Every structure is written in structure tokens, then in C-alpha cells.
Amino acid sequence: MNCRSEVLEVTVEARQVDEAMLALLHTILLHRSTGKFHYKKEGTYSIGTVGTADSDCDFIDFTFVRVSSEELDRVIRKAVCEFKDALNNSGSDGMGQISLEFYQKKKSRWPFSDECIPWEVWTIKVNVVNLANEQERQICREKVGEKLGEKVINVVEVINRNEYLPKMPTQSEVDNVFDTSLKDVQPYLYKISYQITDSLGTSVSTTMRRLIKDTLAL
Amino acid sequence: MDSDLSPQDKKDLDKFIKFFALKTVQVIVQARLGEKICTRSSSSPTGSDWFNLAIKDIPEVSHEAKKALAGQLPGIGRSMCVEISLKTSEGDSMELETWCLEMNEKCDKDIKVSYTVYNRLSVLLKSLMAITRVTPAYKLSRKQGHDYVILYRIYFGEVQLSGLGEGFQTVRVGVVGTPVGTVTLSCAYRTNLAFMSNRQFDRSAPIMGIIVDHFVDPPCSSQRPAVMGQPCNYRAPDEEDGGAFAGVQDSQEVCTTSFSTSPPSQCVCTLSPSPSKMSKPLPLDSLQLPLAPGLVAHNMCASRLSYQPSAAEVYPAAANANQLLHAGKEGGVVVVPCQPHGVDAHLTVEPPLNTPGSSGDDEGLSRSGEERREEGRSVSPSDPVESLNAFTRKVGAFVNKPSTQITAANLDLPFAAFAARGLDSEGSDPMVQPPESPPSQSPLQASLHSQGSEGSGPQDDFVMVDFRPAFSKDDLLPMDLGTFYREFQNPPQLTSLSLHISSQSMADDLDSLPEKLRVYEKNIDEFDAFVDMLQ
Predict the structure, then answer these.
(1) Gap between the Cα atoms of A185 and A187, Å rounded
(2) What are the DSSP calls for A94-135, one per residue?
(3) What is the pLDDT of residues B133-171, one digit of tens each?
(4) How many domains does chain A fold into?
(5) CATH 3.30.900.10 fits B7-189, yes or no
(6) Predicted ipTM?
(7) SS3 state at A12
(8) Do A145 and B274 touch (CB under 8 A)?
(9) B509 by DSSP, 3-state: which?
(10) Domains of chain B by residue range
(11) A48 vs B contacts (CB less than 8 Å)
(12) How many CB pairs under 8 A join A and B?
């Protein structure tokens, strides 16, 4: 199948990177998470309940809704933190991108390892700027808040196209479609990776690719 | 069209759409409560969480939604709309956004009702949650409080967008195809927030639901967000039944004014939605405390939603207090008493008091010639000179009035200084006309008197000598301050200050006390009910 790819671009101040990324990643994951499946006999299953939580941003005039799951939040924060550190340390002019990829696992026969077939990739391109004074920062707060609002609307628009979604799996297949490691929610299998664009704008002399969900380690 | 749909599927679909509509309303209204919403995920299905989402049901909101639907479902030409508007403390209101749940004719016959439609409706609800935090009304609702509140109204039928002003924007939350039509959820929001003051509240039906966010000295003050920690203001005295909830109608708004000498502050609040959407900042005139009573229903720490019945359905306050407190934070709901603000009267017409404690002759001399009223009670004289000065009124720079006799007996009575010697024929007030000073004059007074005695009228007790008020220029304008002073120097004496009258009235008061007590005791139930209502 074709993998759907969406790109979102944001320009933020250095201290806003965390929250901007969290806002967008959580918004996407909110739509791509379900409750925990409980399989019963005869191939039926019931689905747990997903709670939601509002999160206010400190450096941006924005509030986003995320899935009410501390575990998931921790994982996402860790990824965003690494991305931010990489951005800071890279010495580049503050450009990078973080990707959230939803994939399915396809079992292959030995000796081949399972394939990971992405079906949706979200790429968030970040451009970090430095602002000179407090007034500009204040304006930036509001503007970035607005921009994130627009991005959320974009995300919602894409998701509501109701294009391809993996079929609901049987019990044996559930781990090929969903991440069942969390105890309260069940997002689709995903991985987060990032790239820092160096100052030449080329995609990375040394690619730093971190697999937060390391599904290749079998 | 329905022939392809099995009866069970049809039944399921109807149920899904009904509950989707109810949950949509809950999500929208809860997003405008002004607080952060947080619900918990649960891995084990409870069976009662529609669409696998933890969305609380606020009973009043459900009630309103069901009432609006009246047993029908959103269908083609029959949309369910939730209108969010803002109402200021002065009664001006403005529609902010309208969320529409519509159905169109485009059917998706092949879709599986029980699974795909259900899941897609679930995703649509999540999208709704995300979008409700993005529209400009969200920020406004987070800041609601004394200056304005956010209200909601649910109606069914034709979508009305005319109240949103020019240039309103629309955002589509999403669509879900079903075998009987396509469910569409969208929001139209106002972008022009220029507020028209004194705008008529020209809606046909009163706004039924109110999202109120007021706190009054809440016992659980720790739960309060810092921004909203303002005491509640008042309840209209003319509410029926002493009931807690007046309908939100302009006619019931009573604005108690605070009697302050300072002018009311303007532009207390500038509503600031996202700047790109706003043409200019929004000055709201005189957003003064306290709020209109109709809006202040009840104070809840946890849930700021209170359902305001129309005027016809006013419940006694005590009962209502329990009825309304359901939805709240998971920690439970606390009823917070709403105390009437009452007349916040600092009736500050007190004159600037003389600062007592200035001792010594020099101080007396150097007192400015500004008008001062020296009240006996405010002065704690430390020496005879002080006491004398306390009872004199200095008019004009360094002018002292001719001393008059004051008896020792008079000195003992409070406010004796203001007691007229008869209800004065001269029409001069005792403030102006100083009480009699002791026969022995202090050297100070004598000297002052001699200084100021030029040009004094022979008959007048009150000596006005070439009145030059301090700090007032007399070259440009002919002594405005002086003119004013002259004009108003002889106000009529206050009757309550007349010793004769006051003693008489006190006697009357004492006599009438038993009668009054009888009346109060007779109405004791009423007073108790009133007190309960306040709690």
C-alpha cells in the first residue's frame, strides 16, 4: 500500500521546541490510539476507555489535548527531549525534523526479519529562531500558538479523510498492528525518529537516527 | 435507502448518532467551562463509556441537549447546534461560535455500522476535543470570571450563523459516512470581536445554560486556579423566592454600584483571542464588579457549570445547591456559598480628616488653609490647645474663627461639637459655626485671631477674610476653590447631628425596638432561609 505522508512546518523559539513538538505529536497520537483490547472467545473483543487530558503550554499560548497516559507521555517527552538536545548540540542553524511513523509488522519467513511497513508518516519540520527582546518573545508566544492551532486543524483534516487504516487484528496479530506495551492505552505501532539539518540544508552529514520504539531488535 | 440496512444495524446507528450528539454537546460545553479537563484512561472497559472515550456527562447539559433534540435525531435539514456566546457583567452579549452537527444525504452503504462507523465517530469526537481548544473562544473561556461569562445554547433545526458577525470563519472537524447519510461536524466562529456596547439581547429564547466560573471565598481555595480567585459578588435582591437562579434575562439584572468617589475604571478587560483573528483589541466598557445577578448562579470549586432554569422554574436555593453539583473534578464537588456582595458602599464622602497628633503651636499655625473638617472623634487631643484646635475650623490661611464658648459638659458628649444650639436659625452648620471655646483662650488662639480679624464682619460669627485657598491660583480664574467654598460653606445642619433631635430619635428608636423584635421573630423562618441560601 502507499504510505501516506504529511509534513508540518513550524518556526519556534528555542524554548518553545519541546512544547510545540509535544503538542503536535500528542495530537496525532490522540487520534491514533485506542483503548486496550480485551479479546474474548469467538474472536470478539472489547475496547478499553481512553481518557484525555488538557495540557497548557508554558511558553506558547496554546493548550492541547493528549491521551491520558503517563507512560505514553513519558515516551514522547523522552523523544522530544533527545531531539531538542540534538538540535542544540548540532551547531546547525536550528533546523531539524522529527518524524512520527505508524507502521505494521509483517511476519516474514526465516531468515528474514519482520518487515515494518509504514502506512502513515508525519514529519514535523522545525526551524528555531532566536529573538532579541521580550516584546518579540511575547508576540512569538501568540503567533506560535496560532500556528499550532492551524497545524492541529491540518492534522484533524488529514485524519478525518478516513483513508487507510490497518484492519483490526485478531488476537494473535494484535502486536503487529498495535503497541500493546502500555497498560492503559493502545496506540498503533509507531516509531519516532529525527534528523538535524546541517547549515548547508542538506539532509545530514551524519544522520542521527534514534529508534525510540526499536522494533528491529528481535 | 434504508432497505439495505438491517433493523439491528438501523437501531444501532440511531443509537450511535443519538449518543454522538449528546457526547458532542458535552465535549463542547466542557471545553468552555474555563478549566482544564482531565479524565482517566481505563484498560478494562466499563461498558458505559460511549465511543471508548472517557467523557463525563454533566447532567444539566445532557438534559438541555435532550430537551433540544426532543426525541429526534440530527437529520437532513435538522441540525443540532451548540451556540457559545459571551456575556459581560453589564449585560452585553456576543455570539462567539456555533458548532453544528449536520447530516447530509450522501450515504455510504457499504460501511459497517457496528464497527467502522462507531470507531470513526470515536475519532471524530477526539478531533472535536482537539479543535475545541484551538478556536478563539477557548482562550476567552479560560479567562472568564467576573468580567464576563461564557454561555451555551443548544438548538435543533436550521443553523443560524447571523449572530457571528461579518467574516466569520468555519472549520470542519470531520465527517463520518453512514448508510443513512453523512454526519458532519463543523464550527463557525466569529473573527470580528469588536464589541458593541449596549447591544440588545435580541434572541428569541433566553439562554438556558450558563457556564459560570465564580468563586467565593471558597473553602477549598487550594483548588482554585490563581487567575480566578475572585469573590463572587451578589445576588439580585429581587429574585423570586429568594431563589438562587434567575433566568438569564436582562430585566433581572441589577447592578449594584459601589459608591466610591473615584471614577469607575474603564477597560478592565481586553479580550484577546488569537491576534490574527481579531481586528482590534476589545475594550469592554466599565466592566466593573459586581456582575449581573442572573449570571451568578452558584459557586463551585470543581465544576463551574450551573444550569440556569428559566425564570419560571426557579428552585429554592438550598435544594438547588444539591441538584447542581454533579459534574466536577474527580475529587468531588464542593459547594461554595455565594454571598451577596451587598452594597459595597464605601460611601466615601468622609472629609479628609485632620491628622491628629500634631502637637505644638507651630503645627497649628502651619496647617494649610484647605478646608478641613475636624471631627471631635477623630482627634485625640493631647493637650488643651489641641482640644481647642480640634473644635475650630480653619478657614482661609491662618484664619481662625472667633472663639466661642464651649462648655465642659458639651465636650463630654460625642458629637457634641456638632450639636446645634437649637436647630439653628442662622442656618449655619455647627461645623462652620464652631462650638464655644473655653473662656480662657490660649495665647495661640488670641494671636491667630488677631491675625485674621481684618475685615471681619461685625455680626457674622463666621469670618471670611479675603479668602485665599491655598494652592489655588487667583490670577487666572477668580478663585474657583474659594467660590466653591463660599457657596457651600453653609450647608444645612444634618438633623441626625442635632442633639435635640437625635436624642429624640434615639428615644423613639428604643421605643420601637420591642415592636421590631416582634416582627423579626415572626419572620424568623424567612431570615433563616435567606441565611441558608447564602451558604
Answers:
(1) 6
(2) SEEEEEEEEEEEE---TTSPPEEEEEEEEEEEEEEE--SSHH
(3) 999 999 999 998 888 899 999 998 888 888 888 888 999
(4) 1
(5) yes
(6) 0.90
(7) strand
(8) yes
(9) helix
(10) 7-189
(11) 41-45, 52
(12) 130
